[in-house]
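[[Per-residue structure]]
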Amino acid sequence: MASSLRLLLLLIVLVTIPAALSHTILQIPPNRHASEDRKLRSDDNLFCDSWRFSVETNDAGTWASIPSRCVGFVQDYMTGSRYASDSAAVANFSLAFGQAVKLGGDGKDAWVFDIDETLVSNLPYYQAHGFGSVTFDEESFDEWVDLAEAPAIPASLNLYKGLQRLGFKIFMLTGRSEFQRNATVKNLLYSGYSDWERLLLRGPSDKGTLATEYKSKKRAELITEGYRLHGSSGDQWSDLSGFAVARRSFKLPNPMYYIA
């Protein structure tokens, strides 16, 4: 009898404990919002990384501003180590190509550089203007250019000096306007660039011309002068494409804005 009673009590305990535990667990609801937030951030990072890839490869075509969900992603990319690493990778491949070029020794071996987001960084300006998420304001950007304080992109400065040591003539071909020449020269010297062959800016006749056409015409003029365009560096496809292109073109990263 005692044995049967003990067995009955044991069965009651075994049945009661899981129920109690189950009741206790149910009183602590899962933090569904935190889990959903993590998933959203993960989804945004994946979307924005794919978006950036499409932009850099020009698969995205013409675009006006970065997606609102990618502002934080672009900020992290531009201010973190990835942008510096990507820029350095492009510079290293560029210099390796330059080192393999057999120069003619006549002073006609040339390399063409864009300026903004290619030689110097306007990140201080774009940090104050949403990293490309707001409509571009030409007046405020011109005020920034006048300050002549854009820092050099370290990898590009190393490439620039390396190409000079190899014997390339350096041409700077920018979408900036002629009235910004003095500020541009001041900025270039301030950021460590010197001894370029020529600085080409938009004149009055170039106003309204798409960047691809404008830069193609300027490159064609250099070729007419007898220069051999071995390399070209720019952050926009409009810096590199069109006609009269260099033997090799090197695209630097820029997910903040697009210029046709």
